[in-house]
Fold these 2 entries.
Entry 1:
Amino acid sequence: MNATRKTIMNANLFFRLFDTSDNPNRLAIEMLDGTHISYGDLIARAGQDDVKQRLIDNTANAVARGAFGSPTFFVGDEIFFGKDRLRDVEEMILASR
């Protein structure tokens, strides 16, 4: 999966999580439908030390770049904060293709 598709999927997941009261596990299962990733494999992988360390490193990097809450997205050097900016994130990604 390329970086643009991952970012759009993440934005979509964040939008749905922050915009609804949907169960996050059910949303993850629904979003994985049609991919080659099983929910069980995703949960197992999330518990592994290298993944946990990557989360710690990514969080530190995001804070260093100016992130201060969630959801925060970067498109290049541009920072977007808040669910109301997710449409802007998608438009900027699509415009940069």
Note: Strands lie at 72-75, 78-81.
Entry 2:
Amino acid sequence: MKKNRFKKYLQDQMEEAQKYKWLESEKAGRDLGEKAISDWVTKFGKKFRKKWELEDIEEAKKELQKVKKKETDSECLALLEHVQEMLEEVEEMLEE
């Protein structure tokens, strides 16, 4: 994962965990603190990562399509096709 993408992933994950912490704290009538964050990671962390990665792959595929439309070199196009196939394989693996 590139540094910028990893940073975005961590930011998105923390935002979701903070929302969960707020909701659970409201239900409990007190601040649940780090326990709520830990609960979120245990209950939802894996699903969140999978969903986030699938969305990230979709973005990569869209960017790839933009590049392919501009590219004219046949060897480069073949490489781009291969990258797209690999993205689709990873996407299928994540959906399992």
Note: Residues 5 and 40 are 21 Å apart (CA to CA).
